[in-house]
């Protein structure tokens, strides 16, 4: 065996990757060649020092959460399984339990929908995905939605209030087509998702944060609203205030 | 709704098969991209792509498969940074030519590597040129076999061996050079 061959194979030797025949050949060469023996010792030493050092990184928990959030959630199935389980119990305990489950599930659902809303917002930021209809004129954007959805979302121009209307888009949340109205604040995009709901009661706005995006959610006149953006929570609250005020004026005016 | 990517069973299988390697994938990304937030983005993209192609995944082992996807994502990132980095695939062939061990030949029996803290060693490894760095990290830090490295980087085992020998020679030389400098 030549020195060149030995210098290559000694790595396989220290990595435990060499077959028995080659191990004998390399060892035979090392026994008669001090330079190669020194190289082997040096590489063994470096490998030992490296093995002692902690050179691995640990993924941040936020990254794990981001990846988890992007995976399809198996919750629909498990919810059915839970309900089936309760149905088998006595009527009384089932009733009592359902009340509890309903609370748990509602939060669970809201969390899932929040995650879908944030995903839809992220999708919309990719090139060419933001708007199906581009217009700063509410009288162009609003009719565009007609016939595409059961209930067209309210389209309100807030340019004078510092939030420029950019356009509208169809999106899918909770497996249903819903309207998204797009606004711009400086360089930041705000998606306002609007869906129909059976409840006509007014639910005051609430801000939640997911994956670094602020989402402000409220309910009014049989519609659910989600405003999502990377602008600050206070600015997003300002947007929702302006929107609610303008909507009230539209309805009453 | 019935599309396969929404299949909860598939998501569960993917989670169980791929998520245990998150730290491994993140470690490789950190060494390849040398930037924590770029590494996070690359790893997330890697898992998205892996999920997308999970239906067609038939092996090899999960770890090398994820690493292969991560390499593609990182190559795209290199392309984006094109002015400052050389993409892995575009490394000139000449860089891989032997002789590869001469530079470490300076009387190795008298040179003893001074123990260094992990941060200093990480820096030395990060500074290695591609494709030697990725081979080195896959072997010494991610503990892949030569066969698995060959699968992950799409190169023959002989190439893996020569890259690894060269990476170790370069690392040792850099380590020695740093020790000679007065601090």
Describe the structure.
The complex is a heterodimer of chains A (253) and B (183). Chain A has 8 helices and 7 strands, in the order ααααααβαββββββα. Chain A has 253 residues and is of the alpha+beta class. Chain A folds into 2 domains: 3-52, no CATH class; 63-252, no CATH class. In chain A, strands 1-2-3-4-7-6-5 form a 7-stranded antiparallel sheet, sandwiched between helices. In chain A, helix 1 (3-14) packs across helix 2 (20-32). The longest helix of chain A is centred in the middle third of the chain and has 34 residues, at 91-124. Residues 75-105 of chain A have low confidence and may be disordered. Chain B is mainly alpha-helical. Chain B has 2 domains: 4-80, RNA polymerase sigma factor, region 2, helix turn helix motif (Rna Polymerase Sigma Factor, Chain: A); 91-180, Winged helix-like DNA-binding domain superfamily/Winged helix DNA-binding domain (Arc Repressor Mutant, subunit A), CATH 1.10.10.10. Helix content of chain B is 60%, strand content 0%. Chain B is built from 8 helices and no strands. In chain B, helix 2 packs across helix 3 (36-52). The longest helix of chain B is centred in the last third of the chain and has 24 residues, at 157-180. The chains are: A alpha+beta (253), B mainly alpha (183). Chains A and B meet through helix 1, helix 3, helix 4 and helix 5 of A and helix 1, helix 2, helix 3, helix 5 and helix 8 of B. Chain A: This is Membrane protein.
């Amino acid at each position: 065996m030549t020195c060149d061959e030995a210098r290559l194979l000694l790595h396989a030797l220290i990595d435990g990757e060499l077959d028995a025949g080659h191990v004998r050949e390399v060892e035979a060469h090392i026994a008669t060649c001090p330079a190669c023996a020194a190289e082997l010792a040096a590489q063994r030493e470096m490998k030992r020092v490296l093995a002692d050092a902690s050179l691995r990184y640990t993924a941040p928990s936020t990254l794990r959460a981001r990846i988890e959030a992007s995976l399809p959630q198996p919750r629909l199935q498990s919810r059915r399984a839970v309900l089936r389980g309760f149905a088998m119990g006595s009527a009384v305990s089932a009733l009592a339990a359902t009340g509890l489950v309903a609370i748990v599930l509602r939060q669970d659902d809201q969390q899932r929908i929040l995650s879908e809303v944030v995903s839809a917002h992220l999708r919309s930021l990719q090139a060419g995905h933001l708007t199906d209809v581009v217009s700063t004129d509410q009288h162009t954007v609003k009719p565009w939605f007609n016939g595409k959805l059961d209930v067209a979302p309210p389209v309100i121009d807030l340019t004078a209030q510092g939030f420029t209307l950019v356009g509208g888009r169809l999106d899918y949340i909770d497996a249903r087509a819903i309207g998204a109205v797009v606004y711009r604040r400086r360089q930041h995009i705000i998606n306002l998702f609007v869906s129909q709901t059976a409840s006509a009661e007014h639910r005051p706005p609430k801000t939640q944060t997911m994956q670094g995006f602020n989402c402000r959610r409220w309910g009014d006149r049989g519609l659910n609203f989600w405003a999502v953006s990377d602008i600050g929570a206070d600015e997003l609250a300002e947007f929702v205030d302006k929107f609610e005020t303008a909507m009230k004026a539209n309805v009453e005016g | 709704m019935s599309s396969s990517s929404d299949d909860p069973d598939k998501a569960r299988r993917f989670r169980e098969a791929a998520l245990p390697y998150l730290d491994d994938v993140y470690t490789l990304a950190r060494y390849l991209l040398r930037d924590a937030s770029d590494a996070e983005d690359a790893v997330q993209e890697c898992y998205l792509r892996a999920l997308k192609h999970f239906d067609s995944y038939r092996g090899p082992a999960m770890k090398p498969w994820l690493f292969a996807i991560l390499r593609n994502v990182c190559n795209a990132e290199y392309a984006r940074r094109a002015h400052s980095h050389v993409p892995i695939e575009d490394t000139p062939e000449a860089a891989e030519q032997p002789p590869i061990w001469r530079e470490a030949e300076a009387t190795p029996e008298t040179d003893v590597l001074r123990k260094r803290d992990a941060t200093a060693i990480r820096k030395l490894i990060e500074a290695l040129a591609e494709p030697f760095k990725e081979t080195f990290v896959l072997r010494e830090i991610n503990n892949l076999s030569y066969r698995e490295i060959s699968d992950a980087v799409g190169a023959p085992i002989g190439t893996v061996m020569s890259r690894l020998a060269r990476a170790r020679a370069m690392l040792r030389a850099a380590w020695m050079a740093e020790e000679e400098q007065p601090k």
